[in-house]
Amino acid sequence: MSKEKKQIPFEFCKIGRAAKFLNIEVSDLLSLAVCGKITLCVRFDGLRSLLWGKGDAIELSNWYLSLESNYCALAFAHNISRYTSFSIDRVSFNESEDDPTFHPWFYQSSSDNTSGTSTSHRGRAYGLWVPQLPVIDAILNYGKSDLLWGSLDLYRTEESTPELCLIPIPLNYEDLNDNYDDNEEPEEIYPEVQITEDDLWITSEQVRELLEHDGDYTDLPNHAKKGLSIRPNFMAEIKKINHIAEHHATNREKLYKAAIFLLSKYPDECRGERKEVSPEKWRDCIVKHKKEIPPLAITNEEVMLKHLRSASNGKL
Length: 316
Known about the structure:
- By secondary structure, this protein is α+β, with helices and mostly antiparallel strands.
- It has 9 helices and 15 strands.
- It starts with 11 loop residues before the first strand and ends with a helix.
């Protein structure tokens, strides 16, 4: 007698719901994801970001405009996969001009297009996106993780979809463009978004794969995960992006270590009239005593101040 196929009553759901449905623990799903057996996602509702993809700007623009609209999103978004949509905000207004400016949908990543990649104009991301594995690993180990430290992958459901990833836009995006200094690598400031297991989602395809193995996941194929771009050249480009994010994280850590050292050595110079830690005075102390600490990669005083404000507010 053939085993009756279990019905899945959802297209996607949070992993807590999926764990109950599969009669396993949430930690089981997290460990399977960390091992590359399944794919877990986060869900956005308008994250300011841009698309970075393989192909020239004209090809990607034509592809984007051929997609169906997502009328559930509060923006003119297009469905770039079954569970994901993206809205390109190509119209901007200048207060000094009456007419709007229409930006290209996509730009070449380099003037000679030697990279073979293009970047969309700024937009907003909706639906399911795949975080980097270190994010899932941190949730498994510590119960939470910062999310916006690197790129996110598209959960691909169509073979014809170009290879894409999502790049979050820094809060200081305009300042980076206006005040770029060739002698100093700019420091991006991203929204502070922490997630836990309650923020992770799984699709019905992933759940079906687990059901078919009937609770024994030792022989689950490695990378049963679907929809991720796996061409080596493209992944190498994405790793460069994530390396930049890790580089900035290292720079911030060096700043915090130096700041804590000087706070303990010169506490009065770092405090205000009520003896509270003053980010402005703390920054001035670092600048004044910079010869007493290892060289810092973050030397822009405004960027330094933003990080020290986060530290003094307990948002390290």
